[in-house]
Structures are given as C-alpha cells and as structure tokens.
C-alpha cells in the first residue's frame, strides 16, 4: 500500500500517454484540463488525497497539454468516482478497479426503505427489489403447493399456518448478509467505499456530505425510487419498499398498477392468504408484453383468487375511524382495506444531485440522457442503470456497468447490447420472455408464423387445479428465425433463460425442431411444436392477414 499525499501531484501517469489519448480520441472525449488551483488546494480535497491507494492500481491520472507546450501534471483523487453502489455502480467500480483504475464509490447509509438520505450497498435489487421480492415469492408459493399436494395423497390434520415475523426476520438477516458481501466485493477489488450522499459540484468534483473528491470520470448510478402520484390520502399509501418490510401481514390489500411489480406483489400477498384486489387504469395488465400472454396471465391469476378492477383510476384514499382504508376511483369506492399499495412506476433519483448546475441533460421524467457508451452531455460524466431509464433490469445495469469499465479503462470502447434481453415476471404463474412479441414482429417483419401450445401441465392432472401453461414461438416466415419466445406457467423464467441463448444466437425454427426434447417437461414443447397455429401475412394493401392452421390448446 502507498499513501498518496497532496504533495505527490507528480504521481507517475502510466496512461497519460498515447494509449489513453488514442482511447479518448476514439470516444471523442476532450482530454480534461488540469484541476483548478481552488480544487487542488482546497483543504477538503487535500484530506481526500491522502486516501490509501492499493498499489495494484495503475494511476490513470493524465497530463493535459498546457498553453506553453510544457505538460503540467493533472491529478485527480480517483480515476473513477461512482455515485451509488447498486447493481450498475458496483459492477462498473469493481471491473474498473480490476482493470487497474483507482476507484471510489459513495453510497447512502443502509435502510430497508429508500429515501433521499438512506439506501445501502447492494442497491434496489439486493435490498428492495429482485432478491427480497423473490424470497417473498418463494414464501407465498407454499399455499398453492399445499393445495396441489392433496391430489397426490397428502393430508393435513391441521391447516398449515404462516408466521409473518419469522419470514421478515429471516429475510432481513439475509439482506444484511448480502449487503456485507457486496461491501467485501468492493473491498477485495480495492475500491474505496465512502458512506454518504454524493452530489456533483463540477465535471470532476463530487461532494459527499461536505467532503470534496476529484475524479477523472464520474459515474452516476443512483437508480430510482417508487413514484406515488399526489392524490388526496396518498400519505396512507405504501410503496414496494414498504410492502417488502411490513410489520404484519395485510388482511386485505388494494394494489394499484398493472405492471410487473403490481402483479408480483399481488401473487405474494395472495399466496400468503391476504385478500387481494388489483386496480388497473387500462383494460389489461402488463403493457408491452405479448397480447396473448397478457390475457392468459390475467385469467390464471384470477383463478387463484385475485380480483381485478380494470379501467379504474385512483382518485383518493380515505381513512375510516376504525383505521381501514377505502380507495375511491373513477368508478366508485372500494372499502375495508388494511393496506393500499401503489405500484405506479419509479422515477430516477436525479433530484438534488447537482446535475443542472454542471449541465447534464435529462428527460422530462428526470432520467439522464446518455449516448451508446453511457456518456452524458458532460464528457467526464457517465451514467448507467435505472437512472438512465433504458431497460430497467438488474442484468442490464450490470451489462452497462461492465461495458463502461471496459470503455474507460481497458482501451476497449464497448456498447451495451440491448438485443434479445430476456426477462421474467414472478407472478403466479410466472412469465418468461425473450425477443419480439407477436405484435412487434408483425410491425418489423410483416410475415410471421406463430406456434403455440396452451395445455394443462402434467402436475395439474392429479392436483386437480385449473393451472394451465401457454407457450409461444414467433418465427420470421422469410428467414425461419425464431424472433420471440414467450411462456406463462410454472418455471417459465428458468426455462426461458436457457432458450434465450438460442434466440440471441439467431437460431431458426429448424434448429429448434432438430433439438431433442427432455421428457416429460413443459419445456420440451418449445422443440416439438410442428404446425403453426397461424400464419400472418402482409397483404398488398399493407393489411395483416391471418391464416389459422391449427387450434391451440390441444
Ligand atoms: C420491487 C422491485 C422488484 C424488482 N425485481 C426485479 C427482477 O426480478 N429482476 C430484475 O432484473 N430487476 C428487478 N428490479 C429492477 C432492479 O432492481 C433495478 O433495475 C436495478 O436495481 C437497477 O440498478 P441500478 O444500479 O441502476 O440502481 P440501484 O440498484 O437502485 O442502485 C442505486 C443506488 O444508488 C444509491 N444512491 C441514490 N442516490 C445517491 C446519492 N446521491 N449518493 C449516494 N448513493 C446514492 C441508492 O441508495 C442505491 O443503493 C426490481 C425493482 C423493484 C423496485
């Protein structure tokens, strides 16, 4: 370890040099000018300059050409300063450090509920998203499995009971373990972790709770937070953060929203025996998903006891004297809820981040605008993950963070690849999908063949439950390429993850047909669907014609 003191402004710059300059030219990034003397001799900055740096790090501090031809050294505390240690920030920081950069990341103090002042290393996915949500999904599955098991001969003398506090305690212990693991991942990579709220002061300076740090590059990976529209009574509403950390199980919940988070929580609470009502503004859930999948999942979810209230917009929440909540919508008032949850979208955490001051461009929703390399309108400032509102999923934030580290510190400009990103909805039953929906494929390719299977899975034959599975392949009629693959039914996220490789690789329906199935599984349907359910052809007038060849569901 070496301590770099303020006086060591002449720190050797191993990449000042043609290599770094070529990279900067490739990316058309202006080579930054030296730091102002204000910054260099600011006592707050000086204190940060004495941070211990791991020797394995090459210094990427560059020299900028001066007016008189001499090359005064330009030095930053760090090559990369990341604001936000969620999926994207941790990935970019860790990779950058592994490539030899000196890296710091700042993150808000831990709390299960996020706010302007609380967060925690690991970010939304680990602490308030994918992980706790999936643990709750597991917890809620059992009630369905108990029901299924009866047809297989299981008997329960006493009805199984669920203990909410055990679930919460175990889930919270797991979150603590995970945030610890993420801290270790950063530490082992040699990344300096600073606890506090980051704010940008100028294109190379970050303020963390009053302390200034300078960096050649700044990465903004602050993610987003739940958005609740301001209507009367919105103070009684819980969001997804709170829904994952309730002190007791809701007796009866209204969930407002038709997106994936709303459906996942509906399944969680329903499985844990809460009475669940879902209110959606549109006619259908899951805008953007394949139309048939949207219809199918809503039907299957309804069969499990969740009540949908379609085309209802919330107008107010009223609290009664007995503490129960009513939800007033454009169609009437539904009463007697112990909880009202809004899953009405998320907004990027870009307020009070100093972005307007330095000129980072944002959309009207507050998302940071970036180019294909995740560079903002300010050349030294970059952004990845949900804060850019591209595809708001953990693996995408990871991909963007990894690509950025390569671009900046491995002399390998890398664009994230957004083609065929698979995704899942952990509703009950769940959905897995990759590639184009039927509607997108028709728009893009015109002539497509649809292969579909809608069947009762083997398990349901003995369980006697009305569970079904829908599987669908969208194939380009001209090239035979599988453009999209969709499934709703047990295990579909696991199955589709495997098939996503085939879709991403551009395999054809013939490749699928040539693959031997695994029997007896639901997944084998994807390689045994021989006859198109319908052939869709663009007519000369540009109209879509559908020729139905076989009926699904046989
Ligand atoms: C309920 C829910 C379920 C989800 N389920 C899934 C799923 O199943 N699969 C999936 O792929 N995705 C899922 N997601 C989405 C996924 O969690 C996000 O896409 C992912 O976490 C984005 O990563 P990120 O790095 O952009 O931001 P985040 O993970 O949100 O990290 C941002 C970090 O920045 C910190 N921060 C904010 N402001 C500051 C500041 N000024 N200074 C310092 N730190 C700051 C925050 O505290 C936070 O830790 C889910 C999200 C939610 C809400």
Automatic annotation (TrEMBL):
Binds 1 FAD per subunit. Residues 79-401 form the FAD/NAD(P)-binding domain. Its cofactor is FAD. One of its GO terms (molecular function) is NADP binding. One of its GO terms (cellular component) is mitochondrion. Residues 421-529 form the Pyridine nucleotide-disulphide oxidoreductase dimerisation domain. It is an enzyme of class 1 (oxidoreductase). Pfam families: Pyr_redox_2, Pyr_redox_dim. GO terms for biological process: cell redox homeostasis; cellular response to oxidative stress; glutathione metabolic process. Catalyzes the reduction of glutathione disulfide (GSSG) to reduced glutathione (GSH). Belongs to the class-I pyridine nucleotide-disulfide oxidoreductase family. This is Glutathione reductase. It comes from Quercus lobata (Valley oak). The lineage of its organism: Eukaryota, Viridiplantae, Streptophyta, Embryophyta, Tracheophyta.
